[in-house]
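User: Show me a protein chain along with its predicted structure.
Assistant: Here is one chain, sequence first, then structure tokens.
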Amino acid sequence: MSYRLPNGSSTSFNTASAWDEGVNTPSVHASTSITVTAGGVFSLPFTAPNLVNACTGVLVPIAAKGTAGNIIATLQEDAGAGFVDVAGATATIAITSLVASAHTFFKFTTKKVFTTTTANKYRFKLNTSGASGTTSIPADSIGANFSFEAYMDKNVVPVTGDNLHFQSPNQGAELVIALDSSPSIGDGSNTTFPAFRSWGNAMVFSNLGVLSWPTGTSRTLTNKGNILLQSGGELRMGAPGAKIAAGVLARLAFDQNGVTCNYGLVQLAGGKCSLQGTSPTYKKTTIVSGIGTAASPLVTGDTTGWAVNDELIAVPNSNNAANYDETETRFIRSIAGTSITTSATVGGAESGFANSHTGAVLFNATRQVLIDTTDNTKAWYGDFNETATIANVDLDGCRLETIGSGVASRTTITFSNLSTELFTADDVVFYRQAGTSGILFGNNNDTRTFTWLLFYDCNATGNMGALFLSSMRNKRFENCYAIDSLCRGFFMGAASSCDFIECAAWACGRTTTADGGFGFQNASNIFLDTCEAHANRGPGIELATMPLLYAVDCSFGNKGYNQGADIAITADSFNTALFENCLFGSTTLITGYTGGSDGNDIAFHRFNQTANDHRFYTKYGMARSTGASLADTTVRTSGSLALRIAPESASPGFDWQFKILARAGSAVGVQGFIKKNATFGTDDCDVELYLPGLVPGVDTPSDTQAMPDDANWNVFSLSANYTGTVDLLATVRVIGKSAAPGAYIWIDDLYNGTNELTALDVWEAGKPSEIIYPELGDPDAIWAVAWSTFTTSGTIGKLVVDMWKLIMLIWTKLFSTKSD
């Protein structure tokens, strides 16, 4: 094993003269650093390997940098009278150009040919000149000297077992090394999480050192060990303006053979990772017919432009009891227009899909940039922690395969930082996930949009998700898909203010009925637009404390049943959700709503995209619209809608509330009709009026009425005198108290229902209008108001009542006199 670094004389990976070789075996202390002084600090002595090669410089990690002055590295030799400086073997770098927590290569002005191989006759000195502030170097493992790696001009192309450091000598201009072969490197000696204070990583990038894949030629670098990206260093597998071309493969393969723990790719602040491949014209299409054999070719809905050997993923869309196990992959064997034949392996014999996927979505999972492993039973992991510059981590047109493990800190690919998170990800395939969670995005407020993320075959053992959003806010996901996940597809834990546009989950929760497509736990303010969840073993949507979920134009279970339910409510959780113009198709629509907490409110507006079909669920039952062309046609007035309440609680019962106007110093009244069915029987149905300032269900109502125990349309009429000085809203509360299955009450024609509001024909967010008010000029504003409510002095209503009483008194007197 050797350490090697590019010396700047050539930019070709496969050119021997481009590389210098390390001399000593470096070590580093876990925490101690050595402060560089004007008088100098020293490395431990080392032994020259021969009398042929020359020392070219020294690589040191920088723990902290000062604010001014220079730092000078000098080779010293002990010729018998103690260590002295070697003339010319020195390099000077401005302290301000150093980067803290990154490696720096001091390349000497004049290299020094070793003159003795006697043990420990060479060492390095670091001193400052005109410095201010503190510049420090991590100590070696002993703690008294600084950590270092000496380099010499033994020029050898890196081979298996070599560890590489990429950086520009003396903090110079960007040094790009072009990958013009397919090498195997790394000794795998560091099996711990790679960090700034670690040696033994297979590749370390810092200070404008770059390794670049060609865009027009397929290249694979096999890497045994960790990769560390530090400030200014870059792993460049294509660039935004120079993507890896279609039909070309840029591959980085982690060699995991023979190890029990995983190697990873870790990016620290300022490190750069550019994975840029040419994306397929069509990333997905629809299967029109066939299974992929010559006798039954797979016919697609688009002329895709895909290529032979591309990998395809067909999602399940059957209603079979185990449809969550029907995801299938195949490789393209031949293409003729929109007809495709497939094989089970690359270049293998013809093999079609085992299941019919007609009408299902078909994905192309092949990308031009690939990071994977040499053994797909041993995963690699990624950890990206960008705190400075957007697009330092830029992923586009790439596939990250066999990722994550059960080892702490190496569970998956993590994109997170406690202060901020700056990266872009578009058209990324996350293929075969392991570990205890899925891909983790988390912990920041930055506004960011991610598009075309595909999560396939997540085998995470935890109950998180293929995509796990942890404490994230202000993120937008467009065309993102989770397929065949052992756990949830998308999981939002304490996430808020995130949007999902045309995202979908298929066949998730493969091993448990508790997990499904989308999971929300302690999340809030989530928006789903044209999203889907089908053929999941658990629910399509799981709500476990999710205030403010709004889903519009989505579909759940109508392209393959969700086996648990389309929507499941976790016990004792608080959720408010609105599903507007959404389609549902599973055997069970919603479960667990009666086990939620008080305040749970799950509403459906235009249920199954059907006009006037609205409903809402609470802890105590459900309510829905009734009328012509709906499942329940019961109304009081033909051509109108009514509200049906199906309580599932005898105490406290299901209640529906609406507001009415309370004018200052005026009578407040409300009338309407309620009908019980026979099953409701003698169970209680009450109507309550609360003047402004009173809390329904807590304070004593201003007026109340119990409905009769029959199956007729019965009138309720409530009134109270509002003595307040400001116009406000009063509350009317209708309570149905019954636990009998099939017990209903219907409500219709408030104020005799002579306009759309009072007829309960205007619904919003799955419920009748929250404010009921007779229109100005509506006859019912006069004629449908109970005369007993007119009690306020000085009003026309009070005058009419008084006149009516006077007329009745005179009439009574007349008839009484006549009879006498």
